[in-house]
């Protein structure tokens, strides 16, 4: 088996590296110390294709292969961990569920908006104050159908990008009976009435990537059933492909590989002596 990058991947690696070296790395310390998100990088990342890594070209994405995705995340991590984390959450958690499982209406409406670099990003809300990895049994945020609307009540925690997002893909319980078919994912625009995005958490690191608590505690209403997608129909295949949690985890691994700290790796990136 050949583990070398092909020519297209080598070209992509250079494009991303040059972008990161110019737009992320010089500002990494400032971004972390001031806890200010690097919006300038977002504006310039759209045309490069870094905001639509797993989005089909018809919706404005670059739709790169899995290795090229990992290359991009590793390079971003080398440049700025905070910005890399935000980009990872946007691509793998905020965009991938819509791209893979959303209706055609949702794809056409939202994906071109968030991959262009001209607007805000995407976000995903899973964790709750009393629920970590036990999503199936622990999710208490509920969505109830009321005519053509979905009424959401609940709270989420540790939502990366929530404060800089156009929408939040939210895991909710739509069947109070429980079980594997009781959960759905609903795209919630961040300007929805009743949605509250709380101030960014104070973190020890990666402080330029905002993380928020979010509550839909005031009967947040969405005006169309097209915002809903059942998780049993939108679930992952056995190899993990299509699961936003698995996709996000793989991207985070790549980011961590890129974050400086290994002298050999730094020399490969041109930073070592």
Describe the structure.
The protein is α+β, with helices and mostly antiparallel strands and 273 residues long. Helices cover 39% and strands 18% of the residues. It contains nine helices and ten strands. The chain has helices at residues 7-23, 28-34, 39-48, 66-79, 81-101, 104-115, 135-138, 244-258, 263-268; strands spanning 121-125, 142-146, 149-153, 155-160, 165-173, 183-189, 196-197, 211-215, 220-222, 228-230. The two termini are 33 Å apart.
Oligomeric description of these chains? single chain
Largest sheet: 4 strands, mixed
Distance between the termini: 33 Å
Strand arrangement across the biggest beta sheet: 1-5-6-10
Helical fraction equals 25-40%
Rg, Cα atoms, Å: 19 Å
The overall pLDDT, averaged over residues, is 83
């Amino acid at each position: 088996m050949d583990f070398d990058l092909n020519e297209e991947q080598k070209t992509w690696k250079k494009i991303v590296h040059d972008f990161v070296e110019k737009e992320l790395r010089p500002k990494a310390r400032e971004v972390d110390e001031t806890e200010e998100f690097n919006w300038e990088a977002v504006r310039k990342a759209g045309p490069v294709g870094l905001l639509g890594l797993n989005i089909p070209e018809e919706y404005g994405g670059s739709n790169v292969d899995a290795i090229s995705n990992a290359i991009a995340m590793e390079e971003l991590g080398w440049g700025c961990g905070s910005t890399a984390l935000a980009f990872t959450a946007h691509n793998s958690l905020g965009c991938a569920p819509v791209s893979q499982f959303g209706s055609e209406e949702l794809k056409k409406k939202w994906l071109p908006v968030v991959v262009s670099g001209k607007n805000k990003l995407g976000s995903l809300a899973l964790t709750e104050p009393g629920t970590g990895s036990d999503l199936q049994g622990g999710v208490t945020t509920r969505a109830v159908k009321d005519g053509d609307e979905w009424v959401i009540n609940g709270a989420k925690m540790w939502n990366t990008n929530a404060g800089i997002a156009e929408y939040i893909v939210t895991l909710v319980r739509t069947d109070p009976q429980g079980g594997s078919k009781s959960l759905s994912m609903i795209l919630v625009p961040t300007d929805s009435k009743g949605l509250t995005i709380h101030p960014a958490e104070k973190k020890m690191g990666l402080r330029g990537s905002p993380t928020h608590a979010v509550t839909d505690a005031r009967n947040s209403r969405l005006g169309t059933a097209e915002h809903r997608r059942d998780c049993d129909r939108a679930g992952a295949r056995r190899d993990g492909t299509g699961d936003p949690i698995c996709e996000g985890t793989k991207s985070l691994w790549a980011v961590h590989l890129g974050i400086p700290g290994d002298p050999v790796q730094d020399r490969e990136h041109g930073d070592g002596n």
